[in-house]
């Protein structure tokens, strides 16, 4: 990107950088400001490209793949059980792809604004940790708001119980940027290790079981594939276990939700082992997922079997789950199936599902390449990239309840990983 005047640079560089840097803060407020920001960044970037008659930014392979996926979503929403909501979601999905290209282009101009984005996350994590623990000990957050769910921490998210989701999804980026900026300087690095431990404990107190799984999944991934984090691995692991054990002892309610409730919903409580006999096999069936989630999945799978190629249409699970031919039981219906893979399978069919499988295979391919390199004493990815990849892994992990794949807030949190990874890989190529 080149600029002829200070005014042009202000409009097409400074404003997008400002909006991008504030995204971690905007995500706390909800989807509106964050969605508005990425939309403005995308629009300004498109205007710049048209003014300069320069569309070389869009020639990358990843954008072509995204473009095909986007075109399919639009086609599907038009020809398959058309409704205006589905079409709008599909049409405006384009902004995510443009946003990624725009941020990569901004990073190519001057990557120092990464610092602004990093400190924005740092401020958010610090405030959430302070406020979260304040709410836990006092009973209300610093604004006097009590959590809508007793014995669970919501912090600045108030009635939205997404504190755990925010921390778990942005932590890989936060940790990766700390490595990139501070190069593992001990004084700073251990500060971020402490922040991770406190974040994990706070997620545990929030009662968000999926987020608790995600942050540990990303941490394990980083521990397995990083280059230089040997000392830190043991510190993080041991400290986290000790703190969570202590909290479980002094606060059995938190333990009850994260562990006991999960076992109960899977039908793996003590009652299962006491009552497991031939007379009540149906009642003592083990569930990998909760009964409610299992019902969603079965209903979604029935939709897929009925319409294998195209599915029932983008974001149409909610509109068809009550149909008698799909309805499994009274728990079957919801706004979405609560699993990304099953949602794409039921709503977009084999064609839409294949894009996600392609992404998973692509991810596994490069992780395998990194493992081969590591076996030879080399590294394909830097530690910064490993952290970003761990953030992507969260969204590609197939066996876990998830949010709606077409949810704006979740999509924004997800795509934040890609510009950093693409830009970092381009530096290595150069």
Helix and strand layout, with pairings?
Blueprint (H helix, E strand, L loop, with lengths): L5 H16 L1 H7 L1 H22 L8 H19 L4 H8 L2 H16 L4 H25 L24 H20 L3 H21 L2 H17 L4 H21 L1 H14 L4 H6 L15 H16 L10 H4 L19 H36 L7 H14 L11 H8 L1 H13 L1
Structural notes for this entry:
By secondary structure, the chain is mostly helical. Among the domains are: 110-250, no CATH class; 252-287, no CATH class. It has helices spanning 6-21, 23-29, 31-52, 61-79, 84-91, 94-109, 114-138, 163-182, 186-206, 209-225, 230-250, 252-265, 270-275, 291-306, 317-320, 340-375, 383-396, 408-415, 417-429. Helix 7 (114-138) crosses helix 9. Mean pLDDT is 84; it is low at 265-287.
Tell me the radius of gyration: 23 Å
The biggest beta sheet reads: none
Helix percentage range: over 70%
Shape: globular
Question: TL;DR of this structure?
Answer:
The protein is an all-alpha fold. The chain is built from 19 helices and no strands.
Question: What keywords describe this structure?
Answer:
19 helices, 430 residues, 0% strand, single chain, mainly alpha
